[in-house]
Each structure stands twice: as C-alpha cells, then as structure tokens.
Amino acid sequence: MDIAGPLSGGVDFIMREAALFAATGFLVLGLSEVAVDLLWLGHRASRLARPAPIVADLPPPARPGRLAIFVPAWDEAAVIGDMLRGAAAAWPDGDWRLYVGTYGNDPATVAAAAEVASAEPRIRVETSAGPGPTTKADCLNRLWRALLADEADEGRRAKAIVLHDSEDVVHPAELRLFDALVERFELVQLPVLPLIDPNSRWIGAHYADEFSESHGKEMVVRGALGAGLPSAGVGCAFAREALGRLAAERGGLPFDADSLTEDYELGLRLAEAGGRMAFVRLLGDDGEIVATREYFPGTLAAAVRQKTRWMTGIALSGWDRLGWSGGLAERWMRLRDRQSLLAAILLAAGYASLALWLALKAWQAAGGDGPSPLPATLSVLLAVNFGLLGWRLAVRAAFTASAYGWREGLRAVPRTAVGNFVTMLAAASSLSRYRALRRGGRPRWDKTAHIFPVRRAAP
C-alpha cells in the first residue's frame, strides 16, 4: 500500500494551517508594532526644532537630600569590587550612600565589597545573618530596613532610593539627574544600554538590539501616552516618600518577595497609585546618553535562563498579579508586555511551516508530490507579513546603529533570528516554571554569572 501520497498530503495540510495561524498572529503583532513606530515618529517630529536636552540644562534641586543606592549581591565576587570602585570614582562628590546587600555564606562577595567600603565611608555592606540566596526582593527589603535604621539614628530621611545591580557601569551625571527630577516624579528611569561583548557577538549582543529599540522607542511612547512605566530594576530612582507609602500598604516592606520581576511590578504599582513617572534620555557633559551600561548573558543557557524569568514574571505571573486596569493606552502597553509567549508560539508555528514546506520541496525533487498552491488569503497574508518583517528589521537596525554604529546595525538583522530562538526556548521553560509557581513553588534568585568591563579579556 502506497502511503507516500496521503502522508505528503497530511504534511501539506499541517504546513498550510501552521502558516495561516502564524501569519494571522504576526499580522496583529506587526500592526501593533507599526502603530508604536508611527507614534514615536510623531513624538520625535514634534521635538525636531528643540535642541537636544542635556543634564546641564536641568534646574538645580529645590531641596537637598541624600540619595540611597541599593545594590543586592549574591555570588558577585567577580564584579562587585570593580562596580563599587567605578561608582565611587564616577560620583566623587555629593550626598549619597550606597548599601550593598550580601550574605554570610558568600564570604568572597562580602570580602570584595568590604575592601572597597573600607576606603569609601559612603559605602555600607549589609550582610545577612541567614544563608543566601533568598530572593532579590528580599535582599532589597533588607537594605530598606538598613536605610530606615540609619534615618532613625541620624534624624533625616533620604530623598530617593536608586537601584543598581552589581555589574552595572554607572554614569557620572546620573545622581545629578536623579537629584533634580525626583522632586517632580515618583519614578525616574534611565535607559539601559547593554555593552557589546566581543566574545559574544550574536547571543550577548542581541540584548543590545532589543534594548536599543525598547529604551529608544517603546518607553518613550509609553511616557508620551501617559501609560505606566515599568522599572528596569537598574538606573532608576524612586522618591523616598512614594516607596514609604507603598511599604506602609505591604506591612513595612516595599519590594514584593513573591514576585519574580519585582522591579517591573513596582513601577506599575506606583502608576496605579497615581504616581508620576518619567523615562529620561538626556546627554551628559561627555556628550553620551546618561544611561546604565552592563554586559548581558553571553551564553545560550544563561540567556534562556534570564529570559525565562522575565517571561514568567511579566507575561504569566504578571497577568495574575497585576491584571488589567487603566485606560486604553495602559491596557495596550500591558498587552504588549505580555505578548512574548504568544510571539514565541507564533514563531514556532512559522518556523515549523517553513521546515515542512522545505521538506515537501525536497520530496518533490525526489519525484514525490510537492506542496499544493497556497490559498489566496494566505498568499496575501504572507505578502503583507513579509513587508512588515522588512519594516521591522529596518527599524531594529536603525535603532541599534544609532546607539552602537552602523556595523552593529547591520548585525542586528541576522541577530533577530538569534533572539527568536532564545525566545522560543525561554517560552517552553517559562511554562514549566509558571506551573511550579502555581503549585505553590517559591520564587528563587535565578541569577547568571556576570563580568565587568575591566575584567573582560580581549577577543
């Protein structure tokens, strides 16, 4: 009995159905992206006649106050010393105090941080009596308690709380910017610009493409629409009073230890409470954008692990924890935040349909039945999607080139496939992790190994 014909027919049917599903979904997501692009272009056009904003143009702070910087650190001996030295050198003056959260069963990190703190009295190392790691939010809450103790001892409150990670390269003008703007906003978020790792041009550098577009366009549009701004967890300042009010509603602690993405949620919680927030792109005295820079994961396993946490915390648990609220713009932005899992499913369907089409073409070359002609509706959808894909790649390349130069802009085009692959793997992992959380599992500090620029060996 010849089963080749029915088998190829079945493969052809699956190929066309998968292509139709993917094409329909990509059309919806693509039109959403175009809408954001057009809003950004309109926003940008309205400001063309204005000079580029710079930090030096900001008015001086109306009231003095200390800035408290929180840096949670678990297993960060390789980078924490360099990060603290870099911060102290970038901010030689000013009223600031940096709190480093460490754990007693991580003596290497404690020693590296304590060495820098011994030469810089504005750096405090707060070591937990209990073993680590707990969660990042739990560590931040411990630093919050340390700040409250200092405020009680000294009889003065901090002006703002600034968040950073132990691998961050900070900008010299950052605290001056925060000091001026946190008087007007409950949250001030700076751009994050990933550093290009020469030893990971494809995996690590794909974060540069994504953040160039996200923090060059998406966050700008969110702010222009009046939607809530999610905190990136680094390079951001929260008004002390705003965090205090949030802490009062949560039993005294502002950071939610049950959240995988406490930083993302914190910004949206403040927005729900009516807090004002600003995403700020300003030039410093050095002519560079005041931003946080850092290396992102450079291996496939580490990148998947990090994006699994983001996808689980934002697209899945975030739906449960934050729900849907606000006006049309807010709901649209939350939908965009949560579409990563759908995008991964559509990508898998699209790549599967392409693989099946190639298999049928190969079977046709060997004398079998090839793929049947595509229906007119599917042909039109594919043509429109290819046009949207071309536009999407051009926009991505333009934003990457703007931040990193034209060579990286060109690399951003093939790196899109790398990002898609990481997203699909992370989607599968996030579903498993989300199921574990729904069954009573507890969030864990799922961190990756970090490097600091001075420690990066030449390629």
Question: Element order, helices and strands?
Answer: HEHEHEHEHEEHEHHEEHHHHH
The name of the CATH topology of the domain at 55-299 is: Spore Coat Polysaccharide Biosynthesis Protein SpsA, Chain A
Radius of gyration: 24 Å
Low-confidence stretches: 455-459
Number of strands: 9
Inertia-based shape: globular
Structure annotation, total helices: 13
**CATH architecture tag of the domain at 55-299:** Alpha-Beta Complex
Percent of residues in beta strands: 5-15%
Percent in helix: 55-70%
Strand order of the largest sheet: 3-2-1-4-7-5-8
CATH class wording of the domain at 55-299? Alpha Beta
What is the CATH superfamily label of the domain at 55-299? Spore Coat Polysaccharide Biosynthesis Protein SpsA, Chain A
- The span between the termini is 59 Å
SS content category? alpha/beta
Tell me about the largest β-sheet.
7 strands, mixed
Can you describe what's shown?
The structure is a single chain. This protein is an alpha/beta fold and 459 residues long. The protein has a domain at 55-299: Alpha-Beta Complex (Spore Coat Polysaccharide Biosynthesis Protein SpsA, Chain A). Helix content is 55%, strand content 9%. It has helices at residues 4-45, 80-90, 107-117, 136-154, 174-181, 206-225, 240-249, 262-272, 300-322, 328-337, 340-365, 376-404, 406-438; strands at 66-72, 96-103, 123-128, 158-163, 187-189, 192-194, 236-239, 277-279, 292-294. α3 links the parallel β2 (96-103) and β3 (123-128). It is globular and about 85 Å long.
